Amino acid sequence: MEDLKEKLAMEFEIKDVGSMRYFFGMKVAKNQKGIFISQRKYTLNLSNKFGIMGCKLTG
Known about the structure:
Residues 1-56 form the Reverse transcriptase Ty1/copia-type domain. Pfam families: RVT_2 (PF07727). By secondary structure, the protein is α+β, with helices and mostly antiparallel strands. It has a domain at 17-47. Helices cover 34% and strands 22% of the residues. It is built from two helices and three strands; from the N terminus they run αβββα.
């Protein structure tokens, strides 16, 4: 990973801000089993924006 960062830094201005937690509104979590992505925060923000937080789901 460090080698990749060094090579990218030669071509681009980059900044290492540590582990990624959010990316384009998606939560990113990493553990021994892999990487998990959740859109919960994104959908809650949309629901709040459009005033549908208290609506009941139908199937």
